[in-house]
Specification:
Aspartate Aminotransferase, domain 2
């Protein structure tokens, strides 16, 4: 794809689950901010600032459009990354309104550790739910009464989806609980699993969505009733007296400041807006090419008796190990051939190591930048290694 023309010949990037490559329009939008209207948003009245404000506000609108959520019910706030967003929400939740916190066994350490810390801090019990091989949850098997549920809707090691998210959301809300979604791995290639589902909060990382490094919290306005004001600072208040203050978030138009302390990454936010524009304008052929590439690579891996796949079906993200070969050494061997892929447990230590008992894995995570020749090269190089 011409938007990734900076990729050198023979360079194969297979680590999109960590961070995606950025297409030219995103890089250009970021450069334009720094060279044409570098300014503080929400604070200045001069021309550059007004342009920044308009583009940042447009990005908030694009995020909601991409997720098919209403601006009448939801607010978009920007932060550092998914981990920060989840912790930021949990750090301000009024624990007295809830009875327990719940997560699942296949979580990235972002929600897994954050819920552990929340339980230790508040004294609320923590429950770890099982996930089916297809990523779903047996909703009827759990009691969600007054629970804070923090869970992913797409896995970062095999891409399995929480396909029954609408059912889970309905059950949690009916039981008086709230649902916080880790959407870091879903936003780029699996947004269909959560689009239009009215959960209480969605946290994701823009740098996995073909955008600059940035975190996003999309939250239902009703959530504010359950929050305490612990994290305060610049840009969050309309007025301050000696012993009191007035939160800007009390004004609907500035509700986003609830999670936005201090100066924001204005250029990166604008870059996210450019990434969403780019994604929503992509031709169907681009998505078909991605599907063809990851399906071909997955089928190739399945043909070798030495390869043990974690995946049950093809997905842009696939993890495996090769019998008798250390995955880290395999990663180094691929690196020498300019094939870039991740090895290890991918911050899912509990499930991959302690539940499944797997050795460190190799992960291939493809993206829209990958070319047919990338797949041919990986097959050729791996074929020689596998014998």
């Amino acid at each position: 794809m011409e938007d990734f023309d900076y990729l050198g010949e023979g360079e194969v990037y297979l680590d999109g689950a960590c961070q995606s490559l950025r297409p030219r329009p995103v890089i250009e939008a970021l450069n334009k901010y720094y060279t044409e209207h570098n300014s503080c948003g929400e604070r200045v009245k001069y021309k550059w600032g007004r342009e920044t404000d308009a583009l940042v506000e447009a990005t908030r609108e694009k995020v909601l459009k991409y997720l098919k959520l209403s601006a009448r019910k939801y607010t978009v706030s920007f932060t550092l990354n998914t981990t920060f967003g989840i912790n930021l929400i949990l750090s301000q939740i009024d624990a007295g309104k809830f009875e327990k916190v719940m997560t699942s066994e296949i979580e990235h350490n972002s929600p897994f550790l954050a819920t552990m810390a929340f339980s230790e801090r508040t004294g609320l019990p923590r429950e770890v739910m099982a996930r089916n091989d297809d990523g779903t949850i047996d909703v009827g098997a759990y009691d969600f009464s007054d629970a804070i549920v923090v869970i992913n809707c797409a896995s970062n090691f095999d891409g399995r989806k929480l396909a029954n998210l609408p059912e889970l959301c309905k059950a949690v809300h009916k039981a008086g609980g709230i649902l916080i979604i880790d959407a870091a791995q879903a936003m780029a290639h699996s947004v269909d699993v959560l689009a239009g589902v009215e959960v209480d909060a969605i946290c994701f990382s823009a740098h996995k969505l073909y955008a600059p490094s940035l975190g996003v919290i999309v939250w239902r306005d009703e959530l504010e009733k359950m929050l305490l004001s612990y994290w305060l600072g610049g840009g969050m208040v309309d007025d301050v007296e000696r012993e009191s203050y007035k939160l800007s978030a009390e004004n609907k138009e500035h509700r986003f400041t609830r999670f936005e302390s201090g100066l924001q990454a204005w250029g990166e936010i604008i870059g996210l807006g450019a990434a969403l524009d780019w994604l929503m304008k992509l031709p169907k052929s681009a998505w078909k090419n991605l599907e063809k590439n990851y399906t071909e690579l997955y089928e190739f891996l399945k043909t070798s008796e030495k390869v043990h796949l974690v995946n049950n079906e093809s997905n842009p993200t696939m993890s495996f190990y090769v019998e008798g070969l250390d995955s880290h050494l395999l990663g180094e061997a691929l690196s020498r051939e300019n094939i870039m892929a991740r090895t290890g447990y991918f911050c899912v230590h509990y499930y991959l190591d302690h539940v499944l008992g797997l050795p460190p894995l190799m992960r291939f995570s493809l993206g829209l930048h990958n070319r047919p020749e990338d797949i041919e090269k990986v097959k050729k190089v791996l074929g020689k290694i596998l014998g």
